[in-house]
Specification:
Distance between the termini: 83 Å
CATH superfamily of the largest domain: Periplasmic binding protein-like II
Largest sheet: 5 strands, mixed
Helix content: 25-40%
CATH architecture of the largest domain: 3-Layer(aba) Sandwich
CATH topology of the largest domain: D-Maltodextrin-Binding Protein, domain 2
Number of helices: 9
Order of helices and strands: HEEEEHEHEHEEEHEHEHEEHH
């Protein structure tokens, strides 16, 4: 009996050692695996976020990558339809929205926002040879294009009636309709129209002063206080070390932080 008990004890010790070794290896593996930082955008907002040759790229994509690196996380940019992007965040499909989202009181009811990561403004764009629209007051009765579920729709309705506001899936598509005569004007972000004017790809021009001055920030779930703090810290770091300016210069030729 004593001999059997000794053998059982020996086997037990061996099994315990194997289990500890397995747990130790798992811990080591887990500790070296980077946690993912999943951030969403529409993928239809060039040059901020768009797909080219099947690859998601743009200013928002690269800012997310820079932030993830500072946070010691793996950047995973994803796309989601803009009209349901907040719902996707709330249902935990991703961790944040880095998609050129304007901070509004209405959106603050659903999500928390980080510090501003760039500033912009709504601008009126018209066909290159259009001389009839020079100011917001000239938009009365005119057909205005805007992107779906954006703040620009409400803005357009202050200048023209509902039947003359045409909604698009993409700002670019709306701007492309200006030279065709389907639209009289488009209201969208300056940062969307200015690169197009510079490239000369679509014959359009901006008119008047910006209609608004908007802060764009990164949206997170209200309960994710720690993540919000980490993002804010990382944002300040990439601004301070020049990473932010390098990314901004690549896409716009200047810093769009607006400080």
């Amino acid at each position: 009996m004593k001999k059997k008990w000794g053998m059982g004890l020996f086997i037990g010790v061996i099994l315990a050692a194997l289990m500890l070794s397995a747990c130790s290896n798992k811990t080591n593996t887990d500790s070296t695996k980077e946690k993912e930082f999943r951030y969403a955008m529409s993928g239809l907002y060039k040059p901020f976020n768009f797909k080219e040759n099947g690859k998601l790229q743009g200013f928002d994509v690269e800012i997310g990558q820079a932030l993830a690196k500072k946070m010691g996380m793996k950047a995973v940019p994803v796309t989601n339809p803009w009209e349901t992007i907040i719902q996707g965040l709330q249902s935990k499909k991703y961790d944040a929205i880095i998609g050129s989202m304007t901070v509004t009181d209405e959106r603050k009811k659903s999500v928390d926002f980080t510090e501003t990561y760039y500033r912009s403004g709504a601008q009126i764009f018209v066909r290159k040879d259009n001389r009839n629209i020079q100011a917001p007051s000239d938009l009365k009765g005119k057909k205005i294009g805007v992107v779906k579920a954006s703040t620009y729709k409400e803005l357009a309705l202050t200048y023209t009636d509902k039947k003359n506001v045409v909604e698009y899936d993409s700002d670019i598509t709306a701007l492309m309709d200006l030279p065709t005569g389907r639209l009289d004007a488009v209201i969208t972000d300056q940062m969307v129209g200015f690169p197009i004017i510079k490239a000369g790809a679509i014959k359009i021009q901006d008119v008047g002063e910006p209609l608004t001055h908007d802060d764009q920030a990164i949206a997170v779930r209200k309960e994710d206080k720690e993540l919000k703090e980490k993002i804010n810290k990382a944002l300040q770091e990439i601004i301070k070390d020049g990473t932010y300016k390098k990314i901004s210069d690549k896409w716009f030729g200047r810093s769009i932080l607006g400080e």
